[in-house]
Amino acid sequence: MTDKEILELAGQFGFDKLALIDTAEIEFNDAFRKACEENRCGNYGGCYSCPPDCGTVEEMKAKVLAHKKA
Known about the structure:
Helices cover 37% and strands 0% of the residues.
């Protein structure tokens, strides 16, 4: 899938501010995990994309950096 196709598909799902970036540009901040552990949004342990099911901070970072773009 091309970058253009990815952005078009995201647009079809209702996203209106779209951009692809190099994953190397993403700043990772471990402090967000503390907010998760405190269950500030109420989803801790509630879905696979949230802790603890999503893995450790290091595992999540490795998954992201395994791709060139996000």
